[in-house]
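Standup notes, protein team

Yesterday: finished cleaning the Rhizobium daejeonense set.
Today: ABC transporter permease subunit structure.
Blockers: none.

Input for ABC transporter permease subunit:
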Amino acid sequence: MANESPIVGKQAGIADRLPLQWLGVAPFLIFATLFLLLPTMKIVIGAFQTPDGGFTLQNIADLFTPSILSAYWISIKISFASAFLGCLIGFAMAAAVVLGGLPSGIRAPLLTFSGVASNFAGVPLAFAFLATLGPVGFVTVFLRTQIGIDLRSLGFNILSFWGLTITYLFFQIPLMILIITPAIDGLKREWKEAASILGATNGQYWRLVAFPILLPSLLGTMALLFANAFGAVATAIALTGSSLNIVPILLFAQIRGDVLGNPNLGYALAFGMIFVTGIANALYIWLRARSERWLK
């Protein structure tokens, strides 16, 4: 033992320390396994099973019925509308704070609020918008009694396509601000100075230099916002109930245990949502990688 090789001893020491190094990430691995991987596997398996456990493709085939296709299409339109408006408004706000010459004290509160608001969803968010823009909401009543504008007569209804889209914007805009602000910070001052020396106007700089560099980040963030809205379940159910035919509400109706419900069709609906959001997230990761290469 006295002649043991130093290399062997060193390798043994590394092996002894390895479990302790993994101990720090063990809670994350356990959480991801219990609440992400195992439920996803249950959904994927259940989508191809009959109620008695046999294999079937009927659940997947049922996704192409007119009512379910319509629900997917409405969900896609709401997700796209909220993602597009969230990107547009969020980018304008982030650019105004980073490049617009606003007081530096505005940036920290805006980012702090964005961090909180981007995670504010579900029943509290639905209640907040019903209390504000619902049929007897504060803003609705104020506009009708004090200004003479009746939102209902103008066709606005919080329990509708645009009502749900506006509600989603509450967390879509802050999420856009959080993600796009570092990308805007990554625009080097030398690029604008070089463009100015070459005679480019501010508009030409944005059109020919800054915007092409930021485009992958913008498109990637839009894909992420789309996935974020498409997978929002609690807010849609709490706000619209059964008045809007979207996928999360159909999914809830299938798995909640009603006599007409079909849990395995619910698994297929959830599998379709995973497929759509998976494509959107893969697109986000790819575009973000391209953006980071530009901004390095």
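Follow-up from PR in the comments: The chain has a mean pLDDT of 85.
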